[in-house]
Amino acid sequence: MKIAVTGVTGYIGICFAKWAISEGHEIVALSRRRPELVVCDWIPYELSSKQPLALPIDTDAVLHLAMSKSPIDQQDGAQEVLAAELLIEAAKKASAKFIFVSSQTARPDAPTAYGRIKWRIEQDVLSAGGWVVRPGQVYGGMFRGLFGELVKLVQRLPVLPAFMPAPKVQPIHVDDLAAGLLRIAECADIRPGVLCLASPEPVSFTAFLHTIARSRLRLRRCFLPVPALIISTGIRLLGEPFRTRMGLERLRSLFDLPVMNTASDLQRLGLQLRPLPSGMHPAGSARRRHLLVEGHALLSYVLRAQPGNAMLGRYVRAIEKLRGGGILVLPKSFVWWSALLALIDRGNCTETTWGKEFRWRLDAATVLAEASPLGARLFLGMGKHYGFMGSLFGMARAIAFEASWRVLSMLFIPITRIALPRTLPERQ
Amino acid sequence: MKPDFDIIIVGSGPAGVSAAFPLVDAGLRVLMVDGGKQSGVLPPEADFISARTNDIEQWKWMVGEDFHALKKRDAVSPKLRVPSHAYAFEEFEARNHVVGKNFITVGSLATGGLSNAWGCGVARFSAKEMANFPFPASELDVSYAKVSQRMGISGRVDDDMSDYFGLDKYSQPPIPMDALHTHLSQRYLNHRNKLNSQGFRLGRSRVAVLSEDIAGRQACNLSGNCLWGCRRHSMYSSTDDLPGLRKHENFSELSGFVVDGLTRHDGNWNVEGQTTSGGERRSITASKIVLAAGTLATTRIVLKTLNHRRPVPLLSCPTAAFLLWLPRLLGAPRMPGFGLGQLSFSLGLQGNTAAFGSTFATTGIPLSEFVRHVPLRRRYGIDLLRGLLSSCVVGNVFLPGHLTAAEAELQSDASLSVTGKYCNAVVPLMDEAAKKLRKAYWSLGAVLLPGSFTVGHPGGDIHYAGTLPMRESPSLGETSQRGEVEGLDGVFVVDGACLPTLTEKSHTLTMMANADRIGRQLVALFGYKSLHS
After folding, report:
1. Shortest alpha-carbon distance between residue A428 and chain B (Å)
2. Where in chain A is the domain with CATH 3.40.50.720?
3. Domain count, chain B
4. Using CB atoms and an 8 Å cut-off, which of residues 26-65 of chain A contact chain B?
5. Which ipTM value was assigned to this complex?
6. Does B384 touch chain A (CB under 8 A)?
7. B3-21 pLDDT per residue, tens
8. Can you give the pTM of this predicted structure?
9. Considering the domain A2-279, what is its CATH architecture?
10. Looking at the complex, does the CB of residue A304 fall below 8 Å from at least one CB of chain B?
11. A186, A275, B271, B409: most buried, per Cβ within 10 A?
């Protein structure tokens, strides 16, 4: 497919273009300058232009992401609407789908000009038979957009406000949003209309900031309760021009966010969103981190020593290459005290799918642990002479420990039965 | 029309090169084609113990950068998990359309075939064992001598297995044994008469591994890397014979070409196949074809060309493995040493059945191969084996090939389906073997560890033979005494497929000697005078 995109150098635009290209599509950038981060065709384009635009005739879809950088006043607003109309016109001429990325705040009586203008453009798009996407709080990937500003804020301030009552946001990872937008462009059976894309379960803004601090920045942050009513009244009293200049409009939108019902739209697109703490991880997923933690537990159980980064990396790569990269979800206690794995090493769980996978991974960890100088010391006894008595004692000790763990694991059967998963998690 | 070549040999494994030498020496225009897989992972440079102690990159040859050892976790033999041997086995079944049903099918598309990763066991079939061969046993004498000397065999010593192997005339001295095997062999001398009366004979293994340098190959230096690959080329691989063939101008090679059929054209044969790289189809003509693609691949080519849809019998040796513990040597330090068979035994069983086996050091084998089977928690399994294994040796047992009831059958989609199971007699025979070995080794101061005697899966021996047996008067699907396929004049089978008998002994040398014999007969057929006659 050939997809023309405005705002391709922006936060969502880059992610979308990279994803679409990796899926085999062709991107035509409509931007002021040739994009540097993505390899694609380029048509010079100004959002402030009043001239009609000509798109390549084989364009299949137009994705309109661009918006004016500066705070919006009435005049800019009119220009944004005109720009959208010109784009809709160009898309019509090329018989291309038109997809407009709007905002959760879009409504006719929105407290901000931004929300009201987005709503006006939405109306134009809908009447032209186009698609409108209202994303929730976009996060993840690069520090850009509102997400980038929030990250910088959390980085800078040791104490963060916890508004009472807390406003709710509905997060969506930027890559999930990109995937959703591409699906709209690709699928012929998705009817035109408004699609709300965000987590169906809102989280409090405080929790969102907390996740940024913990999962993305690995920082501890204190939260100071601040009554939301006082802030919103204060902002309202300042008057719109002043608010716009101070950049407080966004804060005002935050207090006024409507809850979107997204479950049905996500289902229509067949889109499954990653959980917030996982998506907040720099890699866009905590899966790898969980795999490292799992590898650390298994390898240090086998080796009785720290496995080292290179070996851990090999474990993760092996699981990704040969087992699809899913995680085992080991109970926390086994992760903290890997010696406890002796409770479940044999017997208790071998029948379940989880148990079989656990055995495979324990075998893999054994093979990887052995193939190292550290492994040679442990497995072959290199670097130490045990002698007849030493070996005999070592063997007797191993059997004595085995016997004790057998007794312990029998006693713990009721607990391990409950604590251990029986199947593998479907999506991670 | 003059064909491209006098003879095309399909396969560059031990059988292919053995047939090639007499043909090339006689001046015939010979083309050798093979799957062309080449090794990609280098075995360790230092000896096994030093490499394990110091090499931080050892995972590359132990596990493989593509995690080959983990990928092949369920393969029957540790050899199939070794990254440096991966190329020897890869894609064989897919490209040759061989499907094993409850039967392990292994073959090779590599230059040098399965000899890239074999156990190097060699033995000569006795006249009695060759009773079913459609020619006198003496006809193989010259070939046994020639092939043995070319390969380089070690183990010459006057012991209880000298006659059994029958190779001392052509052998180099044995490779030194490790402390465990020395102990076993000394104890054997003390209990020899008693053990012989029980049908147990023990002696040095005769192996195609050099104890003295020969042309371009170095003698074994006890590096202990036998499982991982020998940089000194001490272990015979038929790739070592290729330089000798390449010296001749009348010898050509086409590597990376998988043959899938033969067609007759103007009194000549077309070898049809596909290149492995581009999948390009090619057809090459010769007046005669020699098939040495390995028993399974050769069988498929023949059955397909004959359009023979009835199942043909397949011989394969039932196997077992066991672990012996020498308590006197508990705590012996790990030493580098020879990793293949050091001592071999023959064992008489019920009904005149004979079993054969060898014992090996455990040092060069990863401990993870053993610990998986130990009924202990992983940590304590490792602790136990660390103490135990340095005083253990592993052993294997082979029974004669007719004790596996297996068949190969050409399917409607032109694939070769191999099915089979052990005959009912195998369970009692293996029980008897376990009992007798336990008793015999007990006299030698070794304990056959309880639970360690494990019978392998059918086909796991990778000794396949007898699908197209040589007969005095062959019927369809059989071969003549010179390996010529009945119904396909000018197509000769020289690999395991044409052996009418598969004994408990290692059959590779006999297969090679027979290939050499057929090669000589082909020379005569062309009216050339063999330079070696």
Report:
1. 23
2. 2-279
3. 1
4. none
5. 0.92
6. yes
7. 899 999 999 999 999 999 9
8. 0.80
9. 3-Layer(aba) Sandwich (3.40)
10. yes
11. B271
